[in-house]
Automatic annotation (TrEMBL):
InterPro entries: 2Fe-2S_ferredoxin-like_sf, 2Fe-2S_ferredoxin-type, 2Fe2S_fd_BS, Beta-grasp_dom_sf, FAD-bd_FR_type, FNR_nucleotide-bd, MRET, OxRdtase_FAD/NAD-bd. Its cofactor is FAD. This is Phthalate 4,5-dioxygenase oxygenase reductase subunit. Residues 289-369 form the 2Fe-2S ferredoxin-type domain. PANTHER family: CARNITINE MONOOXYGENASE REDUCTASE SUBUNIT (PTHR47354:SF1), NADH OXIDOREDUCTASE HCR (PTHR47354). Its EC number is 1.14.12.7. Residues 62-164 form the FAD-binding FR-type domain.
Amino acid sequence: MRRLLGWSSSTVPQSIWRSRPADLHGGGRPDRFATALWGVRTLLGGLASASRWDPSRVSPVRRTHLATIVKRQFVASDVVALTLAHPDGGLLPSWTPGAHIDVHLPSGRRRQYSLCGRPGRRTDYRIAVQRIADGGGGSVEMHEAYDVGDLLVFEGPRNAFCLGTAEQDLLFVIGGIGVTPILPMIQMAHQRGTDWRAVYAGRSRGHMPLLEEVMAVAPERVTVWADDDRGRFPKVDELLGDAGPRTAVYVCGPTPMLEAVCAARARHARAPLHYERFSPPPVVDGAPFEVEFGRSGRVLRIPANRSALDVMRDDDPTTAYSCQQGFCGTCKVKVLAGQVDHRGRAAEGDDEMLVCVSRAKSRRVVIDR
Ligand code: FES
């Protein structure tokens, strides 16, 4: 039976109803029920507001989609892959390698997962989720809440980690679950006839999801580094091999791997380097400040080396967040007083703050909480 987990018509995000149902221009086949509902709401809304239109009342539309889970499979001991299809059998929105979707979980959490199916495939998507028992709860919920036949709500796809078209010499550096955005890139690079190599590192082969699919593309181009075979985490020289100043390096993996590769590539001025994190970046040039909750008057002290989001989550584990890198906008709060040092990539108004990355220029920031 198809279940829309935890959602009812009154709890489905309002953006679903604001969004026009999927259409021929990238959204797949329209759903008749959603189309009818959307049409009625649009008509009523139009009649009600026809003479009172005011640009300040228009909120940006975030396009939300539904998908049915058609397959659930473990691809490593702690990684489950979910295959998603349009509920009516139509096409899902188009995407390119490196893209991710934002999943709206039944609990209200939002989490981002890279698409790791065949590049550009629209009849279905695949995502893979590593279970992190002591994380923020999103991955555990993804593992436990969804089964075949359930409906899943998502936004996107979006791509902040694109494969360049002009680069002719590519090196992919993969750490564990970091394989998800990279696998479609490898498949695309191979289709294009681009010269590529890959280094895939992990604790053991059993902890390296989708390794067989990476190897299936061209095994002679892939170096596998399993810690239990070859010793602890490879040195950066082993990761980068003979990558020269013209080699475009794409890296996705744990923070130590990412930092090591970034530092090593910094030796080559302007060497192309593309990376995606799956954990928050370290705080750089941080100074301590205070966050005051305007409604309760409570004050949290943010140390120089931690984000405001981190401290807010200690205080209230239900605090909303997703990327923790300043690009999804989930953690945005309204600022009532104080000056913000804006550090995010998502748009932040003067009176807004992305608490996962932004900091304060003043001693205290008062937020609307
Ligand atoms: S959690 Fe994504 S911008 Fe803060």
